[in-house]
Amino acid sequence: SSSVPLAGKQDVGIRIDGRPAGSPESGGTAQYFAVTTAYAGTMGIPVTRGRFISEDDLVSKRPVVVINETMAKQLFSNQNPIGQRLDISGPTYLREIMGVVSNVKRDGLDAPASPQVYEPYWQTPSYAVTVLVRTTVDTVPLAAEMRRQVSIADKDLPIANFRAMDEVVGRSLGPRRFSTVLLTVFSGLALVLAFVGVYGLMAYTVT
After folding, report:
1. What's the Cα-to-Cα distance from 52 to each of 10, 41, 42, 48, rounded to whole Å?
2. At 40, is the secondary structure helix, strand, or coil?
């Protein structure tokens, strides 16, 4: 994938084919993911309508995309999005919508889902890519094996980072955890000061 939920962002402009330019229903912006065929299954993203990107799309070289439920509701509330065509900012050409998937959190677990579009990676290849592996084994030995396999394929190919998805989610919660800890500390100090004040007042009264 070109990016991972909760880590890395890329937004693109969207234009729906056949709609008046500049109108609210003509498009807008969407979170962009360039992915391979196994992405939805690896990440556990359900396909709610139509289908996900397939190898047949690669063979036929037909430009296709998949959108999420939020985009389907916002731009195709009164019609079936499957078979509709849209353009993405950058290389200008129309892509056919082949499916709709469930919303994925990208900006934070507490943030509402935005429109999202998934495009086959081979349609717009990038110089950098995130390889995702779904596993039930410990990630530490897995990381070493993955580095070895990449080195076998190309010893000059660098691996910039290796993280478990739990770590990615944890990092996304960092600012909120810091705020919670800070609030807890100040609440504790306020409670201590209140106890000291009440004790001093009672001691003075008794005296």
Report:
1. 20, 9, 12, 10
2. helix
165-172 helix and 174-206 helix, angle to the nearest 10 degrees: 50
Please state, in angstroms and as integers, the Cα–Cα distance from residue 119 to each residue in 71, 138, 145, 151, 195, following that order.
Answer: 14, 31, 29, 28, 60
Q: Measure CA of the first residue to CA of the last residue in the chain; give whole Å.
A: 73
CA 1 to each of CA 27, 181, 204: distance values in angstroms, whole numbers, following the listed order: 24, 34, 69
The contacts of residue 16 (CB under 8 Å, 6+ apart) are 25, 26, 27, 75, 84, 85, 86
Residue with structure tokens 């944890």? 170
Taking the C-alpha atoms of residue 180 and residue 120, their distance in angstroms, rounded to an integer, is 40
Three-state DSSP state, 82: coil
Would the pTM of this model clear 0.90, i.e. be above it? Answer: no
Helix (H, G, I), strand (E, B) or coil at 178: helix
| CB within 8 Å of 53: residues ≥ 6 apart | 35, 36, 37, 39, 64, 66, 98, 99, 118, 120
Q: What is the pLDDT of residues 143-173, one digit of tens each?
A: 888 888 889 999 888 887 888 888 877 776 6
For residue 115, the tally of other CB atoms under 10 A from its CB is: 22
